[in-house]
Design goal:
The chain is about 100% helix and about 0% strand. The chain is built from 1 helix and no strands. The longest helix is centred in the middle third of the chain and has 174 residues. The radius of gyration is 72 Å and the shape is rod-shaped. The model has no long low-confidence stretch (mean pLDDT about 90).
């Protein structure tokens, strides 16, 4: 009996060893599975943390970009307004330039006409001055002629008076 008990005990020990070995293998498999799950969980948490950090960075960058876009839109609107104002001013200046060019053309024509009139009037004035000079010269010559004629008349009258006295003296001397 003791052999039997010992054999049974050995058999029981062998069975218990097999059960323990099976359980250890099962525990090792569960442990490996738990380690893999833990690694996956840690990896997922790290990735989640990384993605959360990226989300924060991207949100900040998006806010910065939105602010830059708003600033660019405002600046674009200012530039468009300035551009439109410059276009309007250019159109006004072109219109004013055309008006001044037309006015200059009109004034040039008027100045040319006035120059021609002045030239004609100057020619008339020069002609009248020449005629005046000629007439003054003629008047002076005629005045000198009149003065000479008066002197000649006075001389002739004096000569006639002297001759009349001589004649009277001759005629009166014969009666004596």
């Amino acid at each position: 009996m003791s052999d039997q008990v010992s054999t049974q005990l050995e058999r029981l020990q062998a069975e218990l060893g097999e059960i323990v070995d099976a359980r250890i293998h099962a525990l090792e498999a569960v442990l490996q599975n738990a380690e893999q799950m833990t690694r996956r969980l840690i990896k997922a948490e790290m990735e989640l943390e990384h993605l959360s950090s990226n989300e924060s960075d991207l949100s900040l960058q998006a806010a910065t970009l939105e602010s830059q876009v708003a600033t660019a839109r405002a600046r674009n609107a200012e530039i468009e307004d300035a551009h439109q104002a410059l276009l309007n001013e250019r159109d006004q200046l072109k219109a004013r330039q055309e008006q001044l060019e037309n006015e200059s053309t009109t004034l040039r024509a008027e100045v040319t006409a006035l120059r021609n009139q002045v030239s004609e009037v100057e020619d008339q004035a020069n002609g009248l001055r020449r005629e005046n000079t000629t007439l003054r010269t003629k008047a002076k010559a005629l005045q000198e002629n009149v003065t000479r004629m008066r002197q000649l008349r006075d001389e002739l009258m004096s000569s006639i008076s002297g001759l009349t006295q001589q004649m009277s003296g001759l005629a009166g001397g014969d009666t004596e």
